[in-house]
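Practice set, problem 2.
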Amino acid sequence: MSLPLPPAPDYDGAHLRHVLPSACAALGLEGFANRLDIPPCSIAVVIMVDGLGDHNLAAHTGHARFLASAWRRAAQGRVLDCGAPATTSASLTSLGTGKAPGEHGMLGYDLLAPELGRVVNMLGGWDDDVDPRSWQRHPSVLQQAVDAGARVLTASRSQFRDSALTTAALSGGEFLGADRIESRFRAAQEWIMDRRTAKGGVRRGPAPAQLVYLYVDELDKTGHHAGVDSVMWRSMLENLDEAARRLCSALTERYGDEVAVLLTADHGMLDIAEQDLVDIAECDDLLRGVAHTGGDPRMMYLYAEAEQDPVELAARWRAEFGDVAWVLTRDKAIAAGWFGAVEERVLGRLGDVIIAAHAPIAIFDTARTGVGIMSMVGMHGSLTEVERKIPLLELTGRGFTG
């Protein structure tokens, strides 16, 4: 029996897309709204932890005592939605632009580029003929902060300095690359301290606002490889927890209430057993009338051939997967608000039929992707609570203002 459709992500309320604009507003920059009640500050640090969903943190608080202390306090811990699909390219672009996926168009891991007639990757394997600045046309919040007078830093892995995703969604300001969690946090701390005297120190005029975006992808990588209930994942969480504790201690000791440190995530993750990995590469009846597959293993997109009726295609897939997934046409998913307002120019990137898993399964088309992707353990992409709910923590103890 099919489950009722999940509610749409709360794009106008408690949503990831409001984190950076709210931090900018808290810094006193003009043109931004503080929708998430971040406390006033002159230094704002936004830590983005790839793959640390609210349910994942709740299940491992013993390995994240510092983060858990904020998570347990209503004044410091909130729960946000990420968008659909619950995947890195979509969520980081919503964070970076302040837009819903239907506006920015980064609608999954693999997407059909209608103008090219083929599926392209949105994360680490952008095709040379896909221009990030024309594919995603909205300005980044980081660049808007620079234009508003803030000093802005991205602290991330070195390899992401000039990546297509950075160019498309997270450009603006300075970039410091470091390939270990603790090194990234230390680089961010030193950048702030090199540019700001301690509270009560002598300085001329008001200090420029400082905004730091600090990206941590180790938990996501470890979760994909070993699972979110693995010893390796818990060890990585402990490393993150200690790095965050040290950063907050140093900044609050030096700057007091001038600083706000926020931590959020782009999606949650669940482990999928090997026997629940489904490969449809040789399912001729299911693939009849399908020109391309795309999306994510837990939110697959089917791009129909011109003569194929999407309603009939959806019915065929629903007969196979209706007990374990929400199967609906693109039009119904848009009407349900899954992607927010959808711009006409990105409409063709969405599948004509969408299969969003609600049971712990994942669906692959290895004829397109190869079999290597099926080695993943931890996965994400759909609209279950585990995947869509993410934390927003204020880590200095000041708490949210609302």
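Problem 2, part (b): a different protein.
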Amino acid sequence: MRPVLVRLHRWLGVATALFLFVSGLTGAVIAWDHEIDALLNPQFFHARTDGPALPPLELARRVEAADPRVQVTYMPLGFEPGHTAQMMVMPRSNPATNAPFDVAYNQIAVDPATGQVQAQRMWGAFSLARIDLMPFLYKLHYTLHLPIVGGFDIGTWLIGIVGILWFFDSGIALILSFPSVKAWRKSFAFRVKRGGYALTFDLHRSGGVWIWGLLLVMALTSISMNLAEPVMRPVVSMFSKLSPSFVDNAELVRAGPPGQPLATREQILALAARDAKRENLTEPMGALYFAPMFKAYGVGFFAPGRDHGDVGLGNAWLYYNGQTGALAGSSIPGRGSAGDVFMQAQFPLHSGRIAGLGGRVLVSAVGIAVAALSVTGLMIWLRKRSARRLSAAASEARTARGRSLT
């Protein structure tokens, strides 16, 4: 059985090494995406004008009035003092062509006191320019910047499948790391004084053993981050009943009389304020999101600057049919079945934010470790591959000599 597991571990490791190396390093960096982005691009984070902020809906109206080609799809509803209001936008349809306007940006930074756009960028663009660097790394982490072809997201699926292979390979690696009960101590040791191949081997085997639990969590949550609907939710639902997700409620969200105009932002926020009281949500309304694909709105509840959900299971969200204003779903941390709470925990665990600052430090360290395990694994494979080839060559040479003598 062990030879089979060794072969499986070898080929699963080789197949996923490059992907895990990239994901590990980018994950270590994007654990601090907001902070690094602010250092690189202060104009995107720090408002130029001191003074009281305009009402959030007024800011959105001014943005859309300044460039009628776009509509605001994400907007904060509260602002940190001295900070910009970061909004997402999308192009409207050009009535002359029925095609979207050609707009060179999808994210803007707005001065809350004046409503003036002071910076803009195309979030996720394939660019290493300072303004684009952190979004570039973030998207690289979970899609490798691979395209969507015919509605199929190649990058998201690829990284999700790598996560599945990594998850099973983690179990195989643990079994192989303990070849015997008597020699278990060796599986935790590092032969630092010997150096060379011995240390490389220990860094791979023992290093993986010491942080095995964390690696398993990262592998599992990487599946959830990329393949929640097609893979993770169906599996979890086998053990615990899940509340309908936003995607599960897609038809309800879309449902509405043909031709009925969208509800206004003011109407949605009024409904959210009412429903927040009924749900006993204590945090203020923090953001308003519009999903054109579903003709739906989402309202998040968090204090200014807490949009990432810095501690615990994240922020609460309520979702609304964009035409009728009917409540079409919710995600409230800590509520629901055991399966619901498990799914709520996936992003906080993957990002480390479930444990606050310390969790993010740990996730960065694990990301670097994943990259190191990928490199050491390849080094071990290449060395053993070279040794096998030399051994085969020597065997062929001996056979050839034997034949010549006869």
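Answer key, part (b): Residues 244-335 form one domain. The two ends are 40 Å apart (CA to CA).
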